[in-house]
Amino acid sequence: MKKLKLDYHIFKGAVNGYLSLYTGGKERPAYFDIAKTVPQLDTLTKGFPVIKAELDAALRETPRFRRYQDVDPGEAKITGTDTAKTWKVFMLYLLGHKPEGNRSLCPQTCALLDQVPGLIQAFFSVLDPGKSVPAHEGPYYGYLRYHLALKVPAESPPKLVVAGQDHVWREGEAVLFDDSHTHEVVNHSPGTRVVLIVDVRRPMPLLPSLLNKFVTDVVARHTYGRSVMKRLKAAG
């Protein structure tokens, strides 16, 4: 008999219908007030100077920054195949997995991240000059996405568009949004854009929160999380 294998991508789709009852469904907000929704994220925002300093040090370790599609092939449809303009990532945390090589270069950033409850994922996201990200939807309702802008070109600064609402990044400022909405990055800037991306479990009532925790901490950790970490380790 063939062994039944939990598949995160199938499982999360089945759960989305239930979670939509607690997220506002089609009327759910695009952006959120950080202080009211996940106030612990403000600690990261206040830590901008040290996070920025550790990013600058990490950027000198160029080989550790991987093309997003090389870490997660499922992202190839939005990262594109244009090798002249890439989207690179520097993973710091994913579903309980901690890539120690990367984390050793950013100890203070990781100490701040470890204080965030419901942490799902954290990484530096680097867009080459002129690299845009086409409109797409995050796959799961159970998390919210935080961006802390670390490097933003002054000329033609790129913008995030969520559910038709624009947000222009500004260095040292943060934004919290619902990644499951249609969103894109419009980037015509001549410089590199870097943000710290942090995914956290969405605040919800007890029962949906327990289900959400099971999906992230058990199903996703041992399927999606494990496969991404395996690729990251193989890349050296």
List keywords for this structure.
236 residues, alpha+beta, Jelly Rolls, four-stranded antiparallel sheet, 9 helices, 11 strands, disordered N terminus
Description:
The chain is of the alpha+beta class. It has one domain: Sandwich (Jelly Rolls), CATH 2.60.120.330. It is built from nine helices and eleven strands. The strands form two sheets. Strands 1-9-6-11-4-3-2 form a seven-stranded antiparallel β-sheet. The protein has a four-stranded antiparallel β-sheet with strand order 5-10-7-8, with no helix packed on it. A hairpin with a 2-residue loop joins strand 7 and strand 8. The longest helix is centred in the last third of the chain and has 29 residues. The radius of gyration is 17 Å and the shape is globular. The protein starts with 7 loop residues before the first helix and ends with a helix. This is Aspartyl/Asparaginyl beta-hydroxylase. One of its GO terms (cellular component) is membrane. Keywords: Dioxygenase, Oxidoreductase. Pfam families: Asp_Arg_Hydrox (PF05118). Belongs to the aspartyl/asparaginyl beta-hydroxylase family.
